[in-house]
Amino acid sequence: MKKWLSLLFIAFLTVAMLAACAPDREEEASGGDSGSDDTSSESSEDGMPEKPEKLVVWEDKEKGVGLEPAIASFEEEHGIEVEFKELDMATKMGEQLRLDGPAGTGPDVLTLPHDQIGQFAIEGLLSPIEVDGTVTDLYTEASIQAQTYDGNLYGLPKSTETPVFIYNKEHMTEVPENFDELFEFTKEFNNGDQYGFLALWDNFYFGNSIMAGYGGYVFGEEGGALNPQDLGLSNEGAVEGAQYIQKWYEEVFPSGIIGESGGSAKDGLFQEGNVASMMDGPWAYQALNEAGIDYGVAPLPKLPNGEYPQTFVGVKGWHLSSASENKEWATELIKWITNEENAKIRYEETNEIPPVKTLIEDPIIADNEKARAVAVQSERAVPMPNIPEMGEVWEPMAQALQVVATGKSEPEDALNEAQSTIEQQIESNHGGN
After folding, report:
1. What is the per-residue burial (b if ≥16 Cβ within 10 Å, else e) of 108-133?
2. Are 199 and 206 spatial neighbours (Cβ–Cβ below 8 Å)?
3. CATH number, domain with residue 218
4. Residues 426 and 228: beta-carbon distance below 8 Å
5. Domain count, the chain
6. pLDDT of amino acid 426
7. Are residues 139 and 195 in the same domain?
8. Do 187 and 271 reside in the same domain of the chain?
9. What is the tens place of the pLDDT at every residue in 107-157?
10. 346 and 420 both lie in a single domain
11. Could you tell me the pTM of the whole model?
């Protein structure tokens, strides 16, 4: 009996030793310590989740030509198909996103003007993106600020635009260094049919640049986010800026460029060769080219206080749909199509200025007068506020600047009344938030 028990014990030990020496099947399947590569088809790269078969991008109408090269290189690098669709960004993009996003038939990535970010974020249609500082440092501070809402980054910038100084080389050979010089030039040049300088400063989009240059502001900031309870539209700087605006209307601007028809009147005068200079944006270039005007473009001159006008800058960006099931890879695509190389390619195809710091000094922009003017002025600009409360600002400020321009009200009174109206509308329509 004892012999039998001894044999049984020896057999048990032998099996246990063999089991201990055998390779662990789960460890072997996962590569274990053997140093072999992960061969699972479900794996991805650099800790990323499984690759999707396809990503979908919505681009602005007639701008896909600037996107195609970036898509091709992304597909080659990552092996993910990218499909893009062109929609009219101004009128159809948002409407379509509201329908297709929740239905699961929308895009992973889409382009939007930055002033729409806040509303879409509130509606839950966009998700913030997560990128590190090495990515955001590629772009100008204003363009990243424009992509930020409520302290979160909602996209990366693809292009920027802002008003600049445009002059007719037949009438003006050198750009004035400051507005004092421009004012004196304009007084001498004006003769009833021709004008030295025109601007739509009764339009808040343009007029704010003068007020902001003196220290006015729309919304203050708190904790990295715009604070709609902090309005600077009637502070001392804003009033001083409005007084300067009034001086131009009283002494040199013609009465015909005030109000809704002011823009078309200004454009017509310049295109007919009757204006030496004006404040306008890159959207004016095509009409001037067609009119055969030999024109130059520069950043805006300094104000009498030594500061530059702080124009509103508009930034178009690439954004992440909250309905995307592939947010990590969609973010990777956003980073790819906005990097320095692809931003440069896109500029060559579309002429839209990328707010990439290194490209501002690249000969492709630095040697292009029109592009460089927009790039430099964009660095001096402030992003148009992207919170919904901005909708309450436009009309009261337009009314205030028009009564200032026509001399029907003193600047301080007009701005105080406008700010009071805006505060009431924000409280009524946005709950004071």
Report:
1. bbbbbbbbbbbbbbeeebbbbbeeee
2. yes
3. 3.40.190.10
4. yes
5. 2
6. 97
7. no
8. yes
9. 999 999 999 999 999 999 999 999 999 999 999 999 999 999 999 999 999
10. no
11. 0.83
